[in-house]
Write a structure and sequence with these properties.
Strand content: under 5%
Shape: elongated
Distance between the termini: 147 Å
Helix content: 55-70%
Length: about 290
């Protein structure tokens, strides 16, 4: 079957070439371009000027691999369409983890899994050409997911957001609701009324940062909240970690005073001892002379 189809293509190609070369409109040199105003393909030509839509059967990818490629394309589009609206404010992890999971599953089927008859699509879809388009497309999105640290906010198996992430988002919503409630009025009242909620959110974020359980969604949300608190509302409060710094700074400031004071007291004590010994020695000499 493959041999017949190949022979048929060769016959058609030779006939079509013959018709073009010996056409009255063809250039004398025999060299022509597809878009050339001189070259006009014959209307009855069976062989199209475009690339063949199919190759011999032994070079075609199987239906199984073709279906996987089509599914990869669909899920790739779904994931990208999710990422673009989630770019600002950043919600790429919480909104798109499900579509990323579907895309990853399809790529793994292409690269690792065996199809019918122990068939694999890795070579035909990932390594068959220099461009390696499927591999490059997936690698770019995988690199984006890794840089976003989304795995820190998503449970294993991409089932849901982690409990820490959900709790942070709950405190964040309470804080933003407080901002919204008092922002039309006096910002002094906002700073006073929202201080506890904002402080709780800030402490929670610091703890998650220390435990490395943050993703880009939470980092961006906290940065925006901090800008609202300090820049837009001009609120501030002393942070707990500044207390030791102030104590150490005060100690270092008074250290020279303590040093000079102790030196002065020590010298005065030595002076008193010296005077005491001098008087005692003088008294002893007077007594000796009287005797």
């Amino acid at each position: 079957m493959a041999s017949r189809k190949t022979c048929l293509y060769l016959v058609v190609f030779m006939l079509d070439t013959y018709a073009v070369v010996y056409s009255d409109d063809a250039p004398a040199s025999g060299a022509f371009a597809v878009n050339s105003p001189v070259f006009k393909p014959a209307a009855s030509s069976v062989f199209s000027v475009n690339m063949l839509s199919s190759f011999p059967e032994d070079l075609e990818i199987s239906d199984y691999c073709n279906d996987l490629l089509h599914l990869f394309g669909q899920r790739y589009v779904v994931y990208v369409n999710c990422l673009v609206p989630a770019a600002r404010p950043v919600k790429v992890c919480q909104n798109c983890y499900s579509s990323y999971d579907n895309l990853t599953e399809t790529y793994e089927n292409i690269s690792d899994q065996m199809g019918p008859g122990n068939e694999t699509c890795r070579d035909s879809l990932l390594r068959s050409d220099r461009l390696m388009l499927v591999y490059v497309l997936y690698s770019n999105l995988e690199d984006l997911w890794t840089k976003s640290d989304c795995k820190s906010c998503i449970t294993k198996g991409y089932e849901s957001l982690t409990n820490d992430t959900l709790y942070f988002m709950d405190i964040l919503n309470h804080t933003l609701s407080c901002f919204e409630k008092y922002s039309p009025g006096n910002h002094t009242e906002l700073c006073k009324s929202c201080k506890n909620t904002y402080s709780q959110l800030n402490d929670l974020y610091s703890g998650m940062e220390k435990n490395q359980t943050l993703c880009i969604d939470l980092e961006d949300a906290m940065n925006v909240t901090r800008r609202l608190w300090s820049k837009n509302f001009n609120c501030s409060f002393p942070r707990k970690e500044t207390v030791p710094v102030i104590a150490v700074s005060a100690f270092m400031l008074f250290l020279p005073i303590i040093f000079y004071l102790s030196s002065f007291l020590h010298s005065e004590q030595k002076k008193r001892k010296l005077i005491h010994h001098t008087n005692k020695y003088a008294n002893m000499n007077i007594q000796d002379k009287q005797n």
